[in-house]
Design goal:
This protein has 335 residues and is α/β, with parallel strands linked by helices. The chain has two domains: 25-141 and 234-274, D-Maltodextrin-Binding Protein, domain 2 (3-Layer(aba) Sandwich), CATH 3.40.190; 144-232 and 280-311, D-Maltodextrin-Binding Protein, domain 2. Helix content is 41%, strand content 20%. It has twelve helices and eleven strands. The protein has helices at 3-23, 41-53, 68-76, 87-90, 109-120, 171-179, 192-197, 216-220, 249-259, 261-274, 285-304, 310-323, and strands spanning 26-33, 58-65, 82-86, 129-130, 133-148, 163-167, 183-187, 203-207, 226-227, 232-241, 280-281. Strands 1, 2, 3, 4, 5, 8 and 10 form a seven-stranded mixed beta sheet that branches. It has a two-stranded parallel sheet with strand order 6-7. A two-stranded parallel sheet has the order 9-11. This is TRAP-type C4-dicarboxylate transport system substrate-binding protein. Keywords: Signal. Residues 1-23 form the signal peptide.
Length: 335
């Protein structure tokens, strides 16, 4: 074989291989909500996700969104093949994982590690499916805390009459605020922070990731603070239309996202350290026990009303009892 013939054969083989690989890869769009748009940590994570997804037969085009509502709507109407958004926004697509932000159910990042690993397991694959939709990954987004414009609001009884911003697409939040006598002010991701910063509301709840991008220190001012009592865990979730992706894509995606837990947690802890330490104030242990009991009673009622998925509540209780078997709730069957 001449040198020219060898080069020709090699070129033909390379072109054939490239064409075959291209034919085996489908083009899809991934719409990503990130507070910082294309400059944010979530968007950067999804750049690496895009590289990994090629091995599973998908080549994503990434689209950034700074308004979550628009990202969710574009996915709903088919302008996005996949979307990254908060767990609260996923409820219409999967009520099981959409209940992860339930109050008081995941008390630490170690608990959350177990939860996400469990949800990412092939054994949980059926629970990730709901009609045409599939949850292709669950990521931590940080612990949710109250932000108050006055440190004197330091116990539940003082919430009565206070204006609290809540996300109007999550009925469970409105119910919880009603129970404590607070004035629930309908809001969404685009306007809850400005309402707090300009004094229209007294209280918001948010993860640390929102503190600097949304300038929440303006609303905290000199008198405000953040009680060091964890309310819930926030999450980001990838939602796809299962039948439009290659077989096994969802499981491959969940496995990959789970492998990134420590990387994501490092970013979350960095955000938490960015909060000025003077804003944190301590809730006494005696009050913590009382608030934990109140949250449990509330979520049991919300699950009975169908606002939380009972299957997930049972799973989260198993995780809590696995990590702390002495917990009093482990001896009853209410969840």
């Amino acid at each position: 074989m001449t040198r020219y013939s060898f080069k020709l054969l090699f070129t033909v083989f390379a072109l054939f291989w490239t064409a075959a690989a291209s034919a085996a890869t489908v083009q899809k769009s991934l719409c990503i909500w990130d507070l910082m748009g294309a400059n944010g940590e979530t968007y950067n994570l999804m750049k690496d996700y895009r590289v990994a997804a090629r091995a599973w037969g998908v080549d994503f085009t990434l689209r950034s969104y700074s308004e979550e509502k628009i990202a969710a709507e574009d996915f709903r109407v088919g302008q996005c093949d996949a979307v990254v958004m908060t767990g609260l926004r996923t409820k219409p697509f999967n009520g099981f994982t959409g209940s992860l932000e339930s109050i008081g159910t995941i008390p630490s990042y170690e608990h959350l590690r177990y939860v996400i690993a469990t949800l990412s397991s092939p054994k949980a694959a059926k629970l990730m499916l709901n009609g045409d939709y599939e949850i292709a990954g669950v990521m931590p987004f940080g612990g949710i805390y109250f932000y108050v414009n006055d440190r004197d609001i330091n116990e539940v009884g003082k919430l009565a009459g206070k204006k609290v911003a809540f996300f109007d697409y999550d009925k469970s939040q409105a119910k919880l605020l009603q129970q404590v006598g607070a004035q629930a002010v309908p809001s969404d991701v685009t306007n809850f922070a400005p309402k707090f910063n300009n004094g229209s509301v007294d209280i918001i709840f948010a993860p640390a990731a929102a503190y600097r991008p949304l300038e929440l220190y303006r609303g905290l001012g000199r008198k405000g603070g953040i009680p060091d009592f964890l309310l819930a865990q926030s999450s980001l979730q990838i939602v796809i239309r299962a039948n439009e992706f290659p077989a096994g894509f969802g499981q491959n995606s969940r496995t990959y996202i789970n492998s990134q837990y420590d990387r994501i947690l490092t970013v979350i802890k960095k955000y938490e350290k960015d909060i000025d330490p003077r804003y944190w104030f301590h809730i006494p242990d005696v009050d913590r026990a009382r608030y934990t009991a109140m949250m449990r009673e509330s979520r049991i009622n919300l699950a009975k009303e169908g606002l939380y998925d009972k299957r997930l509540m049972a799973l989260l209780k198993r995780v809590r009892c696995q990590l702390d078997p002495t917990n009093g709730e482990c001896s009853d069957s209410q969840e």
